[in-house]
Amino acid sequence: MTSVNPARTDEVVGEAEPVDAAAFVDACRTARGAQRGWAAVPAPVRGRVVEQIGRLFEANKEALARLVTREIGKPLAESRGEVQEVIDTCTFFAGEGRRLYGQTVPSEMSDKQLFTFRTPVGVAVIVTAGNFPVAVPSWYLVPALLCGNTVVWKPAEYTPAIAAAFTELFQRGGLPDGVLQTVPADGPTTFEGLSAALDAGLVDKIGFTGSSAVGVRIGELAGRHLQVPCLELGGKNPLVVMPDADLDLAVEGALFSGFGTAGQRCTSLGTVVVHRDVHDEFLRRFDAAVRAAAVGDPTADVLYGPMISARFLESFERHLDLVRPHHTLHGSTGTGRITADNPREGFVGDPDAGLFAHPTIVDGVRADDEIYRTETFGPIVGVAAFDTFDEALALANDHGYGLSASIYTSTLAHAFRFREGVRAGMVSVNNSTSGAEAHLPFGGNGRSGNGSRQSGVWVLDQFTRWQSMNWDYAGTLQKAQMDTAVLPADQDFRL
């Protein structure tokens, strides 16, 4: 596996030797052998390891951010923010090592105590995409390891250098041998190896971030083994603009939501749903903002850099075929790939050196359009008009995804009605569809996921199992629901 700098495709960044399915199974077996010993380490000590890992990421923040920019083309400011998210995640979960609380529960009988405990799941296989090559893996690995699980991690095949650096920082933080296994592999090999490892009883939990189509296959595979995976999938995220919205603020949010990271986020804006009364003015301002935005060299001050890889650029170009005659295009001086022959006005750098794409606004999107229902995963944003709040809510929901949604309004009732009616797992008011914080639950519904959540204390339920214990010291067998004391009441009493 070889990666190149997508902003300068003649520059090789990293290489890794891919493993086969048998080696994948061996990694799971090694993780199984290390799990009991890791779980025996007291949770506060595991929390201390997480803290040490966080401090290492902090000390190496700039170097890792620059590697992220080189290998996937993310603007340097965003890369720094992504590494900061790893640091924040470690900071949060370091304290959770002292807060893996169970409960004592009152018994219905005398001389008996009831307890609950969080126990590790066991071995977790984590498969992540490369658009957030350090932040998203940390959402899985940090809580999984903190809870006493061992992890087999399959990073994206186009980020071998980032994966190697990420793994070394974790291991240098104090993880014993075998606790974290990183396996470079392609998709089919991963699926084959995971299936074999499940059949061998070596895997207890699957975490997957990627496309909805692959998520369906992962869910089916896990279900055959009576497991519930943690699935964080795609999105077609709406941003509703009410007639009372601050249009400049809405444009700013749409610009970042739709075109940050070149639209290559699961939380990227899919469709702006604009009230007809302000549609034309919003579109005018949005078009002007996109045209004025700097695009190009990710080491410069740009809105976005290149597509992550040639595969993503090709996919973006195919999605342009979803444009129909009733649509109008805005946002740039061309469409498709940016080249010297198909230039972007104000482009920063050499367009022919990398994999750059024109930002594209598609106006006139309707609910029966294929582009309305398709996650395009690139710098393309649809705009649809509505007349009533119920129409806006339907446009926000009916594509079937349910990851993130935003509304711009100055009316409290609109904000709360939208929160109640939208199916997304994450809702923003007067903010973008993108932007997670380490202590807030992250995840979606419908085609965007199976309801599992990452980040904050909510992710602990993905990597622990509740165990109950009853301790009877009465000296005789007390049978629940049969030997319970009854204090009689006079049910016939009336005032």
Short description:
This protein is 38% helix and 19% strand. The protein is an alpha/beta fold.
What does this protein structure show overall?
This protein is α/β, with parallel strands linked by helices. The chain has two domains: 2-233 and 449-470, Aldehyde Dehydrogenase, Chain A, domain 1, CATH 3.40.605; 237-437, Aldehyde Dehydrogenase, Chain A, domain 2, CATH 3.40.309. The protein is built from 15 helices and 19 strands. A seven-stranded mixed β-sheet has the order 12-13-14-11-10-16-17, with helices on both faces. Strand 6 (150-154), helix 6 (160-172) and strand 7 form a beta-alpha-beta unit. Helix 2 (43-59) packs antiparallel against helix 4, helix 3 packs across helix 4 and helix 3 (61-72) packs antiparallel against helix 6.
Q: Determine the CATH superfamily of the largest domain.
A: Aldehyde Dehydrogenase, Chain A, domain 1
Radius of gyration: 25 Å
Q: In CATH terms, what is the fold-level topology of the largest domain?
A: Aldehyde Dehydrogenase, Chain A, domain 1
Strand order of the largest sheet: 12-13-14-11-10-16-17
CATH class of the largest domain: Alpha Beta
Please outline the major beta sheet. 7 strands, mixed
- The CA-CA distance between the termini, in Å, is 83 Å
Structural category: alpha/beta
What is the number of strand segments? 19
SS strand fraction = 15-25%
Which range best describes the helical content: under 10%, 10-25%, 25-40%, 40-55%, 55-70% or over 70%? Answer: 25-40%
Give the integer mean of the pLDDT values: 96
Tell me the number of structural domains: 2
Shape: globular
Number of helices: 15
**CATH hierarchy: architecture of the largest domain:** 3-Layer(aba) Sandwich
Which segments are poorly predicted (pLDDT under 50) over 5 or more consecutive residues? Answer: none
Keywords: Oxidoreductase
Family: Belongs to the aldehyde dehydrogenase family.
InterPro entries: Ald_DH/histidinol_DH (IPR016161), Ald_DH_C (IPR016163), Ald_DH_CS_GLU (IPR029510), Ald_DH_N (IPR016162), Aldehyde_DH_dom (IPR015590), Aldehyde_DH_Superfamily (IPR050740)
Protein name: Aldehyde dehydrogenase family protein
